[in-house]
Design a protein that fits this description.
9-stranded mixed β-sheet, about 35% helix, 2 domains, 10 helices, two-stranded antiparallel ribbon, Spore Coat Polysaccharide Biosynthesis Protein SpsA, Chain A, binds 1-O-phosphono-alpha-D-glucopyranose, globular, alpha/beta
Length: about 300
């Protein structure tokens, strides 16, 4: 029988050094686009895809994430007393059903593959999703939901979100070697983590959404460190191909923002701001003026 995808791993142990000094005391996943932290977008997307169990792989200094997904009785009482029902409503998405969220520590920064492996005992023998909260995807139908629907049609194997990137950018991504291109989906015959452009098998890059067979956790037991001296998730997925287990790339519909970079984060802020009805007019007028002033100053 086909198994539904109900568990997702959120690797959130990274130090976020690209955002220092902010990330000295704030986990990067708590940084906000408008008024929602990055992690909230990831959780919303997982919920829309039918995920019921949320597994966070954390590290020292990430306590704010646990507080964020906890009830805050004093705050809630205060808002209720003041009749702030809209704000109470806004808090609802931060509430988790008891037992639906688990936190596991990654004791050493050994790479994304190692972070996922840390959650192995909570996955058991079923397919699971991985969401990297740095990759924020704006889409009519949330990206993971698109993938779960496509995955349920196939019924087994592994699926990674994929997007064409500029050839000179392949060294920032896992890159797919495609054996068959079916349009929105490709069949993959190889995967390379962060290849330089001259060694990249294509410019179709992996974006931070995965649906993986539990077999990948077994592969993580065996693989050695790869690119950058880290245990790479890409290598454990590539090992599936050698075992004749299918790997698909899924070209999602939507706009991806690299919120692990300052420029991507700023672009996402503007884009999500413009998407808010109550902010749109002011923000648009401001952007218009600021661009005109910038041009005039050239
Ligand atoms: C990770 C993965 C990489 C993937 C990327 C997507 O890299 O290792 O394969 O393409 O996420 O954002 P990171 O950005 O953590 O270096």
């Amino acid at each position: 029988m086909r198994k539904k995808v109900t568990k997702a791993i959120f690797p959130v142990a990274g130090l976020g050094t690209r955002f220092l000094p902010a990330t000295k005391s704030v986990p990067k996943e708590i940084m906000t686009l408008v008024d929602r932290p990055l992690i909230q977008y990831a959780i919303d997307e997982a919920r829309a895809a039918g995920i019921k169990e949320f597994i966070f792989v954390t590290s020292r200094g990430k306590g704010a994430l646990e507080d964020y997904f906890d009830h805050s009785p004093v705050l809630e009482q205060e808002l209720r007393k003041k009749g702030k029902t809209d704000l109470l409503e806004a808090l609802k998405d931060t509430n988790m059903e008891s037992g639906a969220i688990a936190y596991i520590r990654q004791h050493k920064a050994l790479g994304l593959g190692h972070a996922v492996w840390c959650a192995r005992r909570l996955i058991a023998n079923e397919p699971f999703a991985v969401i990297l909260p740095d990759d924020v995807i704006a889409a009519d139908k949330p990206c993971l939901q698109q993938m779960v629907e496509a995955y349920e049609e196939i019924g087994s194997g592994n699926m990674v979100a994929a997007m064409e990137v500029a050839p000179e950018k392949t060294s920032s991504y896992g890159v797919l070697d495609v054996s068959e291109d079916m349009g929105s989906m490709v069949r993959v015959k190889g995967m390379v983590e962060k290849p330089v452009a001259s060694e990249a098998p294509s410019n179709l890059a992996v974006i931070g959404r995965y649906i993986l067979s539990p077999n990948v956790l077994g592969n993580l037991n065996k693989i050695k460190s790869g690119a950058g001296g880290e245990i790479q998730l890409t290598d454990a997925i590539a090992a599936e191909i050698a075992q004749e287990n299918a790997v698909y790339g899924y070209r999602f519909k939507g706009t991806r923002f690299d919120c692990g970079s300052k420029s991507g984060f700023l672009q996402a802020t503007v884009s999500f701001g413009l998407a808010r009805e109550e902010l749109r007019d002011d923000l648009r007028a401001y952007l218009h003026d600021v661009v005109a002033m910038d041009k005039a100053a050239e």
